[in-house]
Amino acid sequence: MAKKRRRTTEKAEETYEFVPPEFDEKEFLLKDLYGTKVFMVVLLLAVIVGILASCIQKFANDFWWLGLLLIILAMISFKQLLSLLKFRAELVEQKTLIGNYIMFLFLSLGIWILLLNPPFA
Q1: What pLDDT, in 10s, does the model give residues 16-37?
Q2: Helix and strand counts by DSSP (H, E) for the chain
Q3: What distance in Å separates the CA atoms of residue 38 and residue 85, rounded to the nearest whole number?
Q4: Domains in the chain: boundaries
Q5: Residues with Cβ < 8 Å from 38, sequence gap 6 or more?
């Protein structure tokens, strides 16, 4: 059995032209600088909370969980802490805010553990 040839009809060539969206460079830079300021405040708060957690650990030797509880409570009240410092957390992107949470947790835990070890204790 012979194959049927398909009839090809010439379609009008469609031309696609990419049109980039509007980009406001000034807004982008201001938003990025604001996120960086919030990040620096997060780093400062993490160092302070890590030092407070180690002080709590030194005074209440058997209650190590109090230092961890302080770090977790500070993470939970992170947006309220930023609002007390006159920062608007809703202006920061969600991905950046999650990164700030993770950085806060690891840096405060690191400071806490570092200050509990022999060179500093």
Answers
A1: 888 888 989 998 899 899 999 9
A2: 4, 0
A3: 10
A4: 48-116
A5: 82, 87, 89, 92, 96, 100
Radius of gyration for the chain, computed over Cα atoms and rounded to the nearest angstrom: 27
CA-based nearest residue to 42, from 90, 95, 99, 1: 99
CA nearest to 82, candidates 34, 116, 115: 34
DSSP state of 88: -
pLDDT digits (tens, 9 = 90+) for 61-89: 778 889 999 999 999 998 898 889 888 88
**Maximum Cα–Cα distance across the chain:** 93
Q: Give the whole-angstrom CA distance, residue 63 versus residue 76.
A: 21
C-beta of residue 34 within 8 angstroms of C-beta of residue 99: no
Query: Quick one: which of 119, 118, 114 has its CA closest to 53?
Result: 114
